[in-house]
From TrEMBL:
Keywords: Oxidoreductase
Phosphoprotein recorded as keyword: no
Alphabetized InterPro entries for the sequence: Gfo/Idh/MocA-like_OxRdtase_N, Gfo/Idh/MocA_domain, GFO_IDH_MocA-like_dom, NAD(P)-bd_dom_sf
Domain GFO/IDH/MocA-like oxidoreductase: 134-253
Family that this chain belongs to: Belongs to the Gfo/Idh/MocA family.
An example Gene Ontology molecular-function term: nucleotide binding
UniProt protein name: Deoxyfructose oxidoreductase
Lineage top rank: taxon: Bacteria
Provenance organism: Paenibacillus montaniterrae
Gene3D superfamilies linked: Dihydrodipicolinate Reductase, domain 2, NAD(P)-binding Rossmann-like Domain
Amino acid sequence: MSNQTIRWGILGCASIAKRSVIPGIQKSRFNEVKAIASRSLETAKETAEQLNIPQAYGSYEELLADPELDAIYIPLPNHLHKEWTIAAAKAGKHVLCEKPIALNYEEALEMAAVAKQAGVIVAEAFMYRYHPRYAQIKQLIADGAIGELRLIRGCFTFNNGDSTENVRFVKEWGGGSLYDVGCYPISAARYLIGQEPIAATMHALFSEKHGGVDMMASGLVEFPDDLTLVFDCGMWATFRNSLEIVGTKGRIELPHAFLGKNEQEANYFLYTDAGVEEIQAEHLDSYALQADAIAQAIYGEQPLPFPLEDAAANMKVLEACLTSAEQKARITIQ
């Protein structure tokens, strides 16, 4: 690895950036956070001081014009992902953009085309899958530890239903539970199965109290070979984030599939006829691992594990799920 670190700029002061992504980048091996921008210079300066970031800017344009920055992290609301990812790519910056990558599949394709033309890396911020336990689980499945794969069951819910103002409640901005947390079990199933879905059937609770967005959604996503993801997601239910992988001879259970707070919560369980095995998984900062994987890809030392084409494919499934919920119909994914 090069002795030079990747120098990051943060485009926005969202809570996910301050709480998790910035500390993760700062803890990583090959990266450093050099600047942060907000539409309010005062907000940018306050955040920079809190998180020990050297430079603060009062506009996104100033951040992108900084020649000392190599990469940009974008934690903006969903409807701004395309605009600012493209702007960063055209400025010659590599990009880590929050999930979902865009509002729809066509936007994701446009972003991919610009990134390719600019010769930059654009990654979607699904930090959980950079933890080595997911590669280990995929290998367990390939080795036949649970027999033939039959079903994946997942959930990701939390409750902010009492909130009166939230960007997640604006339909035109890509609000709703499917885009916010349903994208996690979908991405996990696609990774573990290793194939792309062929259809989706969803039911959702669209709440007028919350801007008409899907506050809860549940359903199934069909994969080739008669494999299925059954999942639910929501922003108006108690907190859950689990994954169960079911085979003909056993199952793997992740009680904390996407977010874990401590050492114990990284562990997962293998159930077979021989009994239950708790598999120890090191408690690592997935945000730091994500940043280091991007840095290594930038330096050409290894390919990005999840390129922008993967983000576009996930967007296609998400779009089908939302359409299915709105139309109350099974939607084929082309």
